[in-house]
Design a protein that fits this description.
11% helix, 176 residues, Lipocalin, mainly beta, 10-stranded antiparallel β-barrel
């Protein structure tokens, strides 16, 4: 029961008194804070560090991500992936957008595909990906497990093909 009450109050705790601008971010409020976790997938087993923070006069949510992978056949020295992202609200289109800038030079622009009514599942589908062959698509799915845990599934689709799992990470809250 205590965890249910905490989960219901989490948006208020994370953002304090809610203004109109604050309430815009309620679907993402459970992501606010610092997270660490592990992933598996095509790049191998990785360790994640991530933060989500409301920034720039509460107009955006900034996402900072660092993923570290141990040495492998393709990367004998290991691999460090970093990306920065921003979630924004496109008022003209009345939809949320996610734009990611990757250390490898990729820029992914996503639009929200869906947010479940309980706000525990959030799906973004790419509209455009820079610096990759035309026709590729990407999908990010966030599944809230509890106030202190969520999974992120990243899927890619080659031109004309269905989405395939690229990586799945489980992240746990370090601090709000």
């Amino acid at each position: 029961m205590k965890s249910c009450i905490f989960f219901i109050l989490l948006p208020s705790l994370a953002f304090g008194q809610l203004s109109k601008q604050d309430s815009l971010w309620l679907p993402f409020s459970q992501l606010a804070g610092t997270w660490t976790g592990e992933s598996e997938g095509k790049p191998g087993k990785g360790v994640y560090e991530r933060t989500y923070a409301v920034v720039l006069n509460k107009k955006f949510i900034e996402v900072k991500n660092k993923s570290t992978y141990p040495p492998s056949a393709n990367h004998p020295n290991g691999e460090v992936h970093e990306d920065r992202g921003f979630i924004s609200y496109d008022r003209a289109r009345k939809t949320f957008m996610l734009r990611q800038f990757h250390i490898e030079g990729f820029v992914n622009q996503y639009r929200i595909e869906s947010i479940s009514t309980d706000r525990r599942t959030i799906v973004f589908i790419s509209e455009a990906i820079e610096n990759i062959p035309n026709g590729y698509r990407a999908k990010e799915t966030y599944q809230i497990i509890s106030p202190d845990e969520f999974t992120e599934t990243f899927e890619l689709a080659e031109p004309g093909k269905d989405f395939e799992l690229y990586s799945k990470a489980t992240l746990k809250r370090v601090k709000p």
